[in-house]
Amino acid sequence: MKSKDDIENRVRALLCDELTRRVCEAKTRLPHLCTYNHRHPLDTRKSVEDMPNDTYNRISTNDGERIKQTIGLCMFNAEAPTLWPGNICEDPIDAQRCPYFQPPATKESIFKAFQVNVTNLDWVKANMPELYGLFWALDDSSNRRLPWWKLLWYRLVRINVAPVLPNYDMMKLLPSAPTDDPG
Fold first, then answer.
1. 62 pLDDT above the threshold of 70
2. Which of 32, 37, 61, 181 has the fewest CB atoms within 10 Å of its CB?
């Protein structure tokens, strides 16, 4: 049987892991983690103005329920239609090569959301069931403090995204074609 100190240590470890997970997520370059990314629904109409729509969304589950498909659009400069290129930002490589990538989370917003979530027992029950069980075992869910070394780590950590991958022209990397010049 675990002592109260062992359970409290496990609570602190789970809280540390959750904060570390959030920091790592904030540092990744993924399309849905950019402030300029907009998820736009695809067309699901079978006909448009009594004409068949051959490109409508046909994706559905096994039980026939239609899946709502979306596509990621980069909305950088969207307020100026003449400057907006209308790029599709759907795959991780798109975000990794984007020079305009802007993460939506700041250090302060990450920590504030972390504190709000771990103080909400319904959120803890749904998202961190092990932590919820430990709170139940302690019969006191007020001990939600991080250890001092984790707070120091968080104060020193920088939340910046990975650098932009270079956009190589693959054709330049291929060998040149042999010429049919006989002489």
1. no
2. 181
